[in-house]
Amino acid sequence: MSEAELVSARGIIKGKLTRILNFVKTFDSSANINHILARKSLLPSILKEFEEVQAKIESLAKTTADKTSASLEPQVRERESFENNYFEVLAEIDTIVENRNKIQNSASRSRQEPNQIVSCYVSQVNPIYLSTAIVLVKDSNNKLQKCRLLLDVGSQGSFITKEVCKKLGLTSKSTNISISGLGQNESTVKTITTAKIKSLYNEFTLTIPLLVVAKITDPLPNFTVQLSQIKIPKNITLADPEFYIPSNILLGADIFWQLLCVGQIH
User: Which InterPro entries match (predicted)?
Assistant: First the structure.
């Protein structure tokens, strides 16, 4: 090949590198990273092509310089310019890939690290009645089953026992949520389900997510209830006439405030 043909071939090779450099510099960080990796795989062959052509040009230039005392400086600058662009492309690609890996690793940790909610239960010596209610819960056959709720405004989550979840035939899915209480006691819930509840006394309905646990609390109330000593007005309909029986679903603060209505007695 003549020197002119070699210079033309070098220009084509430099054009390949320039197109990749421009693509990398304008690459959208949300785009498919494989487009970057595919272009990176082309770089070694582009460098090899340049080295072969540039070596021939420099050889011809040296021969000419020996005869005419011409300077080899232009060819030195050509090589330096190409190498600078080449390593700039590599650095840009490595930065893009590294940033993408950081984002993916961060997202992976977010999926693996459990979310955290707080739920506490305190055993009391003095008689304290917590809010409870009887509601209808739709089972897997679309039939309504009576269930007892414990209403706990101090809990950030809502729960259902495994026993009741299985009895109702509710569909569950995997989750990873950390439950913590006082004293930094923690446990992790691995299953969550969804239930549709309906009031016994009106048309109020609500679909709620429930964390599935083996046990919600110890039996509540944790003392003997003397019904004869509790004065309940005869004109009052209790949300749970048998409030002294342990509950198997707990509704926390995420649901509690949606249940309030006019006419409650405190």
Answer: Peptidase_aspartic_dom_sf
Reply yes or no on domain 117-256 having CATH 3.90.180.10.
Answer: no
CA dist., res. 157 & res. 136, Å (int): 20
pTM score of the predicted model: 0.46
pLDDT of residue 245: 67
CATH architecture of 3-112: Up-down Bundle (1.20)
Check residue 250 and give left, alpha or beta (phi > 0: left; psi -120 to 50: alpha). Answer: beta
- 212: its two tokens: 């599935």
Q: Give the whole-angstrom CA distance, residue 91 versus residue 80.
A: 16
pLDDT tens for 146-197 read: 888 888 776 778 888 888 899 999 998 888 888 876 556 677 888 999 989 8
Q: Sort strands 186-199 and 131-138 into parallel, antiparallel or unpaired.
A: antiparallel
DSSP notation for 216-241? SSS-SS-S---GGG----TT---S-T
